[in-house]
Amino acid sequence: MGGEMDNYYFLHTGVFSVNTYIVPIGDAKSGKDVVIFDPAGCALSRDENLLLDFLKRKDYNCRAICLTHAHFDHIMGIAPLKAAFPEAKLYVHQADAAELGNVCGPMNTSILQDFGMMLKVAKVLEEQPAPDQFLKGGEVLFDEWKVIHTPGHSKGSVCYYNEGKGLLVSGDTMFYQSWGRTDMYGGSDAEIKKSLALLKNTVKEGTFVLPGHDCVGFNIEDNR
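The structure corresponding to this sequence follows.
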């Protein structure tokens, strides 16, 4: 399942139905380069080819893979995407970077043990490559996407804000009239409240929020 809007596409991928976004860089009509946010499709969820088939149909080139955070359900589709597009750069905040690089890092180990999913998922995580670029927050990627560090759901959670397109890719930091859980490894209720306040003071009214799960494309005012 998925959808197509004026300046982005989305697919539901992975074991927990992550919203994976495909956004053209620059001129959406003439350009073929796209950035992929949170590729999650894999053999476990039987959708490992969904994203690649979509890119092939559209004749799109994946220029970059940007992670909102490195929880297991958001990163399990990176390896096949990097294999198909080896020049694509993988971006993640430095605080979540230990979850990538052919390992099942401490955050995901803790979460998978709590969920009783360690044996099923750890092997897939160990196939995921290391990041190419470490984010701190404040960077502007591809001349249009501002990185906003929003800890709380994880220490390395970030949002990507494109003022010109009126889009905020929020990952699991912000949902429709809600926000991501803070009771897992690296989570913090106090931090996510600060992050939500930062977003509401930084992002313009009328901006469409593209969250990591559930309702896609609500106005940021709907979270206030």
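The chain has a mean pLDDT of 95.
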